[in-house]
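F.,

This is the one I mentioned.
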């Protein structure tokens, strides 16, 4: 296929995403006010607890087996590399732009935390469903694409709520502690947020006292020390967020897919309990449009004043859409060259796409939780997703040209 054909195939799913995003943005406007803050929270809860786990679970259970799971081992490695490389580049951006201190964690997370969950779930099936899709049969492509995207979503949720969440949390605590020295303009925006920060500081002090007492009391039994240490780590890492419904659905789906008796019982046209699989799949169909409308509604918050200057905005775009894709291409193509990644073109396309997606929308939720950098994050996300409409299309075109035989 020619570059023009690849460009058209890449453009169609991006245009579909933009149209649904525009609908979400329109519904969030004050004059319409259908997707106001309360409605977004309710819809987001439905996506988080119902639609997304159903999508992830049904996609993985239908396609993942023990042999295919072994073949996909490079996906988690690739996700880890995106976080490591992005963190380094984000720290460099913070130093180069001399951004305000309270933006350090946000910049690192914006560069490290890509939307490797919902966007692949939108883009891959859309490309596969095109009549001139370069990835072969539409049905097989869609099935495999959903499985790849679902695994990417689960891994993304795990790392976002373990790594990025704690970076923003720690910076918010430090920022709150030093706010009195930096002026009133840096205080949290609501009493609720102040209470959250105060609670986090108190919890941290308790944890430090608990740790010190464990070190001082050498007579404490080993199992008791271990139990206390696990409680400390659970409080710090927020395991409830790490093991999100999508992550739990992934674990359950992997068990069903890899355990042959369970698979024959639930998955397949002749399975006795196939109604469970079909019902979960039906619920999962609502995940993509709902997530995309939420994305558009949340971008409305980007039309605010913030401390983010043009150099910071330009730097984030350069990291996410120039440096990361270039380094990702070297990594994935190098892994393919030495035999670590198979010849499946759709699989390679997903690995490459993970390096070129915009920032994760969950970062906005985290800044809202701790009451710090909300408007800054919203502005960065607005520009990031605006540039992504062109950048993702161009990179997808290039990726197809190098992975399609």
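My design for it:
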């Amino acid at each position: 296929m020619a570059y023009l054909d690849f460009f058209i195939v890449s453009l169609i799913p991006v245009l579909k995403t933009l149209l649904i995003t525009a609908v979400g943005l329109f519904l969030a406007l004050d004059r319409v006010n259908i997707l106001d803050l309360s409605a977004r929270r309710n819809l987001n809860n439905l996506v988080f607890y119902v639609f997304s786990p159903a999508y992830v679970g049904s996609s993985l259970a239908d396609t993942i087996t023990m042999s295919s799971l072994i073949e996909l081992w490079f996906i988690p490695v690739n996700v880890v590399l995106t976080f490591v490389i992005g963190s380094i580049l984000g720290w460099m951006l913070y130093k180069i732009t001399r951004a305000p201190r309270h933006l350090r964690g946000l910049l690192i997370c914006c560069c490290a935390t890509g939307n490797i969950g919902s966007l692949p779930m939108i883009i891959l099936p859309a490309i596969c469903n095109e009549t001139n899709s370069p990835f072969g049969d539409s049905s097989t492509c869609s099935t495999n694409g959903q499985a790849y995207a679902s695994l990417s979503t689960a891994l993304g949720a795990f790392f976002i709520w373990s790594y990025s969440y704690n970076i923003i949390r720690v910076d918010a605590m430090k920022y709150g502690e030093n706010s009195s020295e930096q002026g009133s303009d840096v205080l949290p925006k609501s009493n609720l947020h102040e209470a959250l920060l105060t609670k986090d500081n108190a919890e941290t002090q308790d944890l430090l006292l608990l740790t010190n007492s464990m070190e001082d009391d050498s007579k404490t039994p080993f199992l008791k020390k271990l139990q206390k240490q696990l409680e400390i780590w659970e409080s710090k890492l927020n395991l409830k967020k790490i093991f999100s419904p999508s992550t739990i659905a992934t674990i359950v789906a992997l068990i069903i897919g890899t355990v042959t008796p369970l698979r024959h019982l639930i998955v397949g046209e002749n399975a006795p309990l196939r109604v469970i699989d079909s019902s979960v799949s039906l619920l999962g169909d609502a995940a993509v449009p709902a997530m995309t409308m939420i994305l558009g509604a949340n971008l409305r918050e980007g039309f605010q004043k913030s401390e983010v200057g043009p150099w910071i905005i330009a730097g984030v775009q350069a990291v996410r859409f120039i440096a990361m894709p270039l380094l990702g291409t070297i990594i994935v193509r190098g892994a393919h060259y030495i035999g670590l990644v198979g010849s499946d073109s759709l699989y390679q396309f997903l690995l490459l796409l993970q390096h070129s997606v915009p920032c994760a929308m969950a970062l906005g939720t985290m800044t809202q939780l701790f009451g710090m950098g909300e408007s800054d994050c919203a502005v960065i996300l607005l520009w990031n997703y605006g540039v992504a409409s062109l950048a993702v299309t161009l990179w997808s075109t290039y990726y197809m040209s190098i992975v399609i035989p």
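The first helix runs from residue 3 to 27.

Talk soon.
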